[in-house]
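New here. Your pick:
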Amino acid sequence: MRIASNALSDQLEKGLSNTYLIFGAEPLLIEESADMIRRTARQQGIDEVLRFTAGVDLDWQQILDTGQSLSLFSTRRLLEIRLPTGKPGDAGAKALIEFIEKADPSDHLSIILGRVDKAVQSSKWFKTVESSGTSVEARAVTAQQLPAWISDRLRANGVKATRGAIDRLAYYSEGNLLFAAQEINKLPLLLGERELDESGLEVLVADQARFSVFALVDEALAGKAMTALRMLYGLQREGNEAILINWAIAREVRALYAMSKEMAAGADQRNVFQQFRVWRSRERYISAALKRLSSDALGQLLSQLAFTDRVIKGRTQTAGGAWAEVERAVLLLCGITMLQRNTVLNN
């Protein structure tokens, strides 16, 4: 039986399966599912948990021997096997199939993978494990699903929040569910009984680098080159990584490029903003950028950001290095070419 990770809690309330296979695109949900199974096992009297990782301390013969031997200290056990590559190899595949066929009913097995392709999911060992118990798929949370996910998470942590705060937190954490979870976990202590609104969120996260990066992006969208550059230099001095800033700008520019194309084809701006989930307090930044930058200019900026990414990753060398390329991208987003850079800096 295959279920989504958000259905695991209900499934565990009905009883612990003998076999679990955890995989998917979202690392946070994979780890939380593994924790939930481990916690439930202990609650149900399984006090011996044996944990192995392929490539570190995993001997497949030891797994088979463990499955065929009785524990001296516990009548029930949970074996947790991590496969970082998602592939056990020939020996591992045979061992898993044999373990399942011969395992004592008092033993429980949890296999933890990451993202796996169709070839792995079609393999004999995968199908054998899946058919013998429960497979848990940690599906990626899309941008459209993220606000609802955050809302549920806030509610589970006892935090009341306005729609604006939820949307803003979703914008800040898109592409990084772990970041969203970490921030939400802090909120009960920081807020107390207060409701979280947009201004409150800004105050709570003002000193955090990730939020400062998005503030930099907003200033660049507004065309405030001097302010954006000061923020960029400050982030650089504080030891932040150029790749985070480049990612944040690239994410924004991709959306701007798509919006620009839609509007050039005759779409109404209000409808486009709704389609791309532009929350109200950011409309002025997005509007300013779309008025200032054409689709062609945004396409050129995307090329610059792709080049900057290669420089950051060491695939291309430039005289100024990665931070000079990030600066170039910030200025281009402000609508300023490098030929105009010195004029801006001298004003």
